[in-house]
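Encode chain A's predicted structure.
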Amino acid sequence: MAELLHSVEAPEYWPSYSTLVVRDSGADPARCAWGEDEWYDSARGERAALERGATTLVGAGNGWLTASATGSPGHHVLLEAHPGRPADDHRAWADVVETPFRSASGTAGLTHLDHDSDIVTLRLGEPGPYRVRMCRSPGESPGVYRFRLQFWPAPEQPPQWLLRSGPALGPGPNWHALSALACDLVQIVCWAPTESWTASLAGLAGELLAGADDLRQILRHATGRTPPLLTATTADGDPVDDWDATPDDLPLVLELWSEPEDPAADFRPDAFEASRRPGHAPGPFASAHAAEITAFFAGSQEDLLRELRGEGRRAGQSLPPGTGGLIPPGTGGPP
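Encoded structure for chain A:
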């Protein structure tokens, strides 16, 4: 068990936007070991995380950490710094996740989503990679939580759920729960030691403390939403098209989705034509680009390619005769 070096607490924390926020407010990204571009613009940057959406409990990256709370005042937050892995005494808590955290200044400050100043600041030690064990349980009053965040120096490894107080997915469709769980999965891929993360449905279920059938729904959402969060292939490079038929032990290669520099370079006429046929559900590619132009396209393939390259007009506006046309949203599409 590693001794406690420092601790700070905020007994009456009032989160903004129902989100607990910790930042390395003393960081100088231009001088840190990771570099300014990585700090701000990579998938581990705070900006990218905000664009993806919230996780079910905690997300972290380059000098930032967010956790799900409520908008009520009175949350009790304890931050601890340890020289090594602390005692595994988390069984008394309801929800527990471990995640990497990068500190360029050797500090971590409790703050707000829309503020820069720290409420309390914890001295961690030397700048570098840390691991955080985030523990959360209901507080004494309704609508508030107790949080404990334990930091210690450690090599970067993907997040790991240790305790989850309820089922990952409840009965019935729940887009918000799927979106948050998909962002949990993105956090694992973000912190992979390479650009991809290889795991089976059973392995991912253990990482997230979710069932394999839940993982099928989560991956279907993460790879099929617009735009996708992730791409998934088999070890042989074949895309996964049928999650219901995917064996629990099949190795899957997950990568963060990135927008192609030229969307037309990935254009598949067969997928687009299939998306126009009644009764046929479009695939992820067709769905993504149909949403990009927000309407069915009534023109030639060349006109569509030009539109996807950004050379046409905005969706919903008419085009000159002979150049193809956009049917405004809500007015139907071609047969």
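Helices lie at 36-41, 46-52, 175-190, 201-208, 212-224, 269-276, 284-293, 301-308.
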